[in-house]
Specification:
Layout (H helix, E strand, L loop, with lengths): L1 H27 L20 E6 L2 E8 L5 E9 L2 E10 L2 E8 L7 E8 L8 E8 L2 E5 L17 E5 L2 E7 L14 E7 L8 E8 L5
Antiparallel strand pairs: 1-2, 2-3, 3-4, 5-6, 6-7, 7-8, 9-10, 10-11, 11-12
Length: 211
């Protein structure tokens, strides 16, 4: 009887130890229902979208992606079928797009006006020539010499007739970023016949307005 009692006691102790071990193992495991969910990637801000028509062609201008890493897409279509797509990276955001006729040559010319991100807001114009399934980029000359003196961005572009007009405030050496005091500079560009590069035609400085 004593032997049986000892065997029963030993079995009870082993069973209790096994239960404690199981409880410790279960308690040590993370609860899958309370695990932190991975953070969702920030949503891209809405992009630009505009459709332009010059029969028999349709052009769809759009932008997508994060600000500062936008992709500019210009898709040419005919009868709902894609002919070709021009794609470029831009640092800012598209503000407008216009079909233009700056020369007497064949094809369609399209200008995309981009406003830069950040306090400087450096603007630019992206130009494209389309001829059916073919396309080419048009380029603007860089600011140099007196045209670049006092330039710190904040460009504004507009189309006047067959000219692209660019204006921006002029900064003096001691001006803070918020407060340009040198007036306004206006530069005009034209696209020569049979050319894809704009030519600067005039630079005019306007004195600051007296308050």
């Amino acid at each position: 009887m004593r032997t049986s009692s000892r065997l029963l006691l030993a079995a009870s102790l082993l069973a209790a130890a096994s239960c404690d071990s199981a409880r410790e193992t279960t308690t040590g495991q993370p609860n899958p229902t309370t695990s932190a969910a991975p953070e969702a990637a920030p949503a891209s801000p809405p992009g630009f979208s505009k459709t332009l028509t010059a029969a028999p062609y349709t052009f769809v201008v759009s932008s997508e992606g994060q600000l500062g890493q936008r992709q500019l897409l210009v898709r040419a279509e005919q009868d709902g079928q894609e002919l070709t797509t021009a794609q470029d990276s831009i640092l800012g955001e598209v503000k407008d797009a216009q079909l233009v006729k700056l020369t007497s040559g064949p094809g369609s010319e399209l200008l995309v006006f981009v406003e830069g991100a950040g306090s400087g807001s450096y603007g630019e114009v992206r130009g494209y020539w389309f001829g059916g399934k073919d396309w080419e980029r048009m380029s603007m000359p860089k600011l140099t010499g007196t045209a670049a003196r006092g330039y710190q961005g904040q460009d504004k572009f507009q189309l006047q007739g067959k000219e692209v007009v660019r204006s921006f405030p002029i900064y003096q050496e001691t001006d803070a970023n918020c407060c340009p005091s040198g007036g306004t500079r206006t530069i005009r560009y034209v696209l020569p016949e049979k050319s894809l590069t704009f030519r600067q035609t005039s630079v005019v400085n306007e004195a600051p307005t007296v308050q």
